[in-house]
Amino acid sequence: MNKKQLGYFEKRLMEERARVMKEIGYYDESFNATLQGGEGDISSYSFHMADQGTDAMEREKQFLFASQEGRYLWHVNEALRRLYKTPDQFGLCHSCGKEINFERLDALPHARLCIECKEKEENGKRR
Hints:
This protein is mainly α and about 130 residues long. The protein folds into two domains: about 1-90; about 90-125, no CATH class. The protein is built from four helices and no strands. The protein has helices spanning about 5-35, 50-85, 100-105, 115-125. Helix 1 (about 5-35) packs antiparallel against helix 2. The longest helix is centred in the middle third of the chain and has 37 residues, at about 50-85.
């Protein structure tokens, strides 16, 4: 992979990282907002049982989305580490060593496996 392509993927990964950080910040803000009572008091008590159920469901959804984004952020950070630590190895499949298609890396800049090895991995998990 040439320097121009490495620079392109560095930019893509940094953009993805910024987007994910913004999303995590949004979930943090909205999670804190659901804990605020009508008077501004921090309270997890609603006035009605149905409201309590809705609030609990919303907090659970926000937590699940935030944890999913957190896992994605970890993968993006790992890709950046690989890019900075061993740029000559970036874009090579960790399983077979072949070059990962540009289109695949453009869609998933944190990809570690070529499409063939990823399919084998997923088929192995299904069994």
